[in-house]
Amino acid sequence: MRRAETSQSPLRPRDLEEARARLSEQADRLRSQLTRAEEAASALRADCDLDAADAGAKAMTLRELRTRTEMDTALLERTVAALDRLRAGSFGICAECGRPQGRERALALPHAELCVQCAEEREAGPGG
Ligand SMILES: [Zn+2]
To answer: Residues with Cβ < 8 Å from 109, sequence gap 6 or more?
Structure first.
């Protein structure tokens, strides 16, 4: 099948360029999201003039902001690590088994460090 062939073909220089562009864009977007979330959180904390209902809503919003910040931070770390792998020439190689991740996956999820198989095994394994 043509599709299977494509997913197994090695990454070309143009693919690496595309992945680099997408990762840089993603890193920039995450950094500005994190800055905005930080600003929103400190604005919320600074706002002391609240009744009980508002305080409850504020606590919830702060929790949501923290959850989102944690997710964004984790994704940013993976994105930066993928950019490092691009520079080091190990992009698209599974960090677990050392096999190529496949062109399709590397381009669809450029920040992924594992191949599909290892990612599934890790998810199924203890500790998630
Ligand atoms: Zn693997």
So the answer is: none
Is 8 a residue whose pLDDT tops 90?
Answer: no
61 C-alpha to center of ligand 1: Å? 38
Cα 91 to averaged position of ligand 1 atoms, centre (Å): 13
Summarised one tens digit per residue, pLDDT across range 69-109 is 999 999 999 999 999 999 999 999 999 999 999 899 999 99
* Cα(82)–Cα(101) distance, integer angstroms: 13
User: How many A from CA of 34 to the centre of ligand 1?
Assistant: 30
If you measure from the C-alpha of residue 93 to the centroid of ligand 1, how many angstroms do you get, rounded to a whole number?
Answer: 8
Domains within the chain, CATH numbers bracketed = 12-124 (1.20.120.910)
Which has the higher per-residue pLDDT, 115 or 2?
115
- 47 vs 29: CA distance, rounded Å: 27
